[in-house]
């Protein structure tokens, strides 16, 4: 009797847990750039103009099916399932199980198809001809006149479809109308951005030109969409670089056109964070005036400080790290001397290969105003300390624990990395030659003499 009660309780707990979650599963066909089938599908939410993965789902080897359990906080709101730039909207409620079969711009919903998911099922079915151009492998090679006929034929049905969304779920209806409005615009842009050739400027139909010119970027909520950032970027590329044949960065050309101040600030910051600029310092200096919040202003200042340091003649960013004995050492302690920084790790074979040449280089500058700092990004302090002691490595060795300025401000993502500053704390090279390269010794010598260098 007791075992029966325990078993019943377990069933009750399981049922209770199930009632608080939902399941999404199915198939998703997507080829990677290397031609191989993707083995992972993502369940995501919109975040900062793009998507944030909530639940990565690995396909099973046997049948290539993915499956994921959606938690309570991601129910009763629009979420997305997809891979990279191919995302599909879904709406899940507690206890539901939704199956999707997607890929190449198309999706079929089955299982629990609630009234909200029926909206999306009908939508993707309606615009299937358009998505053949933007999401299939060779879509950009299809006849452009077919693409133009499709967007003309879809204009009225799309407007009517969005207008008629009325599931009785007021919050969903509002959210879906906004998402589908821009989802359609995004799908119109994608084929041309992917390489579909419309022809010369005077061959573009009036309806498409009007589509380009009507977007004034007045809606701040574009940034709440999963494709918000890329929609803006692709739109600018198609309108200005392809259609208008302008020279330069599409994002730079777009910024003056963004009417909404909040949207403009967010786009500027996003573009800067992604480093997609020909001259980041000039970009930041030109656009910091458009920031709307203190957080944005502070972020721009930090990025500007880092960007300036990257250029020869820029100011170094101070840091402080401990040696093996725990004594803290600042970079600024060495003002008045040329400073050569070696960022390395005990597990880095190329780093260790440079060590003998680094030792010789340091000996050649003995007695001169040159300081050699070795910053380890190891996280195992004992292992680092043991190697430094056993190999009797020269120079000042500091332990970063892969944290602090060397990771954030100096943006060290690969090692070995060598950095050179002059006696005034100005950047000579943020990515200097390796010790095994004779150019490094010549660069240090010229820096000692106070000669200017353009090495980057």
Would you summarize the structure shown here?
The chain is of the alpha+beta class.
Average pLDDT taken over every residue = 91
Strand content: 15-25%
DSSP summary, beta strand count: 15
How many H/I helices?
14
Largest sheet, spatial ordering of strands: 13-12-11-14-15
SS-based class: alpha+beta
| Biggest beta-sheet profile | 5 strands, mixed
Along the chain, the helix and strand elements come as HEEEEEEEEHHHHHHHHHHEEEHEHEEEH
Query: Portion of residues in helices?
Result: 40-55%
State the shape: elongated
Q: How many structural domains?
A: 2
N-to-C CA distance: 78 Å
Which parts are unreliable, with pLDDT below 50 for 5 consecutive residues or more?
A: 9-18
* Rg, nearest Å: 28 Å
Explain what the structure shows.
- This protein has 456 residues and is an alpha+beta fold.
- It folds into two domains: 18-246, no CATH class; 320-448, Glutaredoxin.
- 41% of the residues lie in helices and 19% in strands.
- It contains 14 helices and 15 strands.
- It has a five-stranded mixed beta sheet with strand order 13-12-11-14-15. A four-stranded mixed beta sheet has the order 4-1-7-8.
- A hairpin with a 2-residue loop joins strand 2 (40-47) and strand 3.
- Helix 4 (144-163) packs antiparallel against helix 5 (170-193).
- The longest helix has 24 residues, at 170-193.
- The chain is elongated, with a radius of gyration of 28 Å.
- Mean pLDDT is 91; it is low at 9-18.
């Amino acid at each position: 009797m007791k075992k029966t009660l325990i078993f019943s309780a377990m069933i009750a707990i399981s049922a209770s847990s199930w009632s608080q979650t939902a399941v999404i599963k199915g198939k998703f066909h997507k080829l990677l750039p290397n031609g191989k089938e993707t083995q992972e599908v993502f369940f995501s939410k919109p975040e900062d103009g793009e998507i944030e993965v909530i639940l990565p789902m690995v396909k099973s080897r046997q049948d290539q099916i993915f499956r994921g359990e959606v938690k309570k906080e991601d129910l009763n709101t629009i979420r997305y399932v997809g891979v990279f730039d191919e995302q599909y909207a879904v709406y899940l409620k507690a206890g539901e199980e939704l199956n999707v079969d997607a890929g190449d711009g198309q999706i079929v919903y089955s299982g629990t198809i609630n009234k909200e998911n029926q909206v999306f099922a009908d939508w993707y079915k309606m615009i299937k001809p358009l998505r053949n151009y933007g999401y299939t492998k060779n879509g950009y090679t299809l006849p452009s006149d077919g693409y133009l006929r499709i967007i003309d034929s879809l204009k009225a049905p799309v407007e009517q479809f969005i207008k008629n969304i009325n599931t009785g779920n007021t919050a969903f209806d509002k959210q879906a109308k906004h998402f589908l409005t821009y989802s359609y615009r995004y799908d119109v842009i994608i084929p041309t951005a992917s390489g579909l050739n419309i022809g010369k400027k005077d061959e573009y139909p009036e309806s498409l030109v009007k589509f380009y010119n009507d977007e004034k970027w007045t809606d701040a909520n574009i940034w709440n969409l999963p494709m918000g950032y890329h929609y803006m970027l692709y739109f600018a590329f198609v309108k200005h670089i392809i259609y208008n044949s302008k020279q330069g960065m599409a994002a730079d050309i777009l910024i003056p056109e963004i009417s909404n101040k909040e949207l403009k600030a967010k786009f500027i910051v996003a573009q800067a964070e992604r480093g997609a600029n020909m001259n980041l310092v000039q970009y930041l200096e030109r656009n910091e005036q458009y920031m709307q919040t203190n957080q944005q202003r502070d972020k721009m200042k930090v990025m500007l400080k880092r960007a300036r340091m990257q250029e020869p003649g820029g100011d170094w960013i101070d840091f402080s790290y401990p040696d093996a004995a725990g004594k803290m050492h600042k970079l600024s302690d060495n003002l008045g001397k040329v400073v050569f920084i070696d960022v390395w790790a005990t597990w880095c074979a190329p780093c260790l290969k440079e060590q003998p040449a680094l030792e010789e280089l340091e000996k050649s500058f003995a007695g001169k105003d040159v300081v050699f700092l070795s910053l380890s990004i190891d996280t195992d302090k004992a292992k680092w300390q043991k190697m430094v002691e056993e190999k009797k490595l020269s120079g000042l060795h500091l332990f970063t624990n892969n944290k602090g300025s060397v990771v954030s401000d100096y943006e060290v993502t690969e090692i070995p990395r060598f950095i050179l500053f002059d006696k005034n704390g100005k950047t000579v090279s943020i990515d200097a030659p390796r010790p095994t390269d004779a150019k490094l010794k010549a660069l240090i010598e010229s820096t000692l003499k106070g000669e200017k260098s353009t090495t980057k």
